[in-house]
Fold:
Amino acid sequence: MELTEHARRNRAQWNLWAAEYLEPGQRAWAQDDPTWGIWNVPESELRVLDDVAGKDVLEAGCGTAYWSAWLGRRGGKVVGLDNSPKQLQTARMLQQEHGLKFPLHLGSAEAMPFDDESFDIVFSEYGASIWCDPYLWIPEAARVLRPGGQLAFLANSALVMLCSSEAPEPTGEKLLRPYFGMHRFEWPDDDSVEFHLPHGEWIRLFRANGLQVEALVEVQAPAGANQHRYPSLPSPEWARHWPSEEIWKARKAR
Ligand SMILES: C[S@@+](CC[C@H](N)C(=O)[O-])C[C@H]1O[C@@H](n2cnc3c(N)ncnc32)[C@H](O)[C@@H]1O
Structure:
């Protein structure tokens, strides 16, 4: 399947970034309890995912695949899909190191190399959720989910996207761009392309693809949260006041 123009650019960019994700990937694989996003909020608190034991689970944009590893250890029949050969190379190395094997596929979540209705859960943490065009990957997620299956994904909040400048400085407290029409984002200092939608448009898109919205979890940084390593994302103080990340939960109609 041919990659879209932005998927080609994101593949090249992620092959360059892969080396920076090796050490965080090693740390995450060594961790036992699943945590979400830049503030490492435990899944045991947020309770996003269905019980994964015995379920077919797809991580769309798995990167170094630490989330897949966490769910594999909990009995999930996990599969990782990623668009970057270099990121998958790290994931394979970590599988070897930890003696935990699961299928890893090279490909774009905008055209998933899987049969219809082959997964019980499709999820993403900063993977397909921000690097794929929602108008392509949400229909694909809906297609590969079984009836009653769960879609869950974490992305930067809409508010963060509105308050982030193009400079590599932490998110501010001013609205810097329009909310209406929000979709494709490009940055001056690299060649990547990101996608973010207004909330109403997410809901419309889910419904158009037979997905019922169950929750929008707005993630608050925990008290005493540590500073993360991303210069253009919000400070812990910012993220105590406003949601910096959001997790959509939806379910395919039975
Ligand atoms: C930030 S990582 C996500 C993995 C991990 N949760 C993390 O936060 O490090 C983003 C991943 O999305 C992948 N990605 C970008 N575009 C993609 C696409 N079209 N299909 C599948 N994966 C894609 C990148 O190759 C990269 O490995």
In short: The radius of gyration is 17 Å. The longest helix spans residues 85-98. The CA atoms of residues 181 and 198 lie 8 Å apart. The first strand starts at residue 35 and ends at 36.
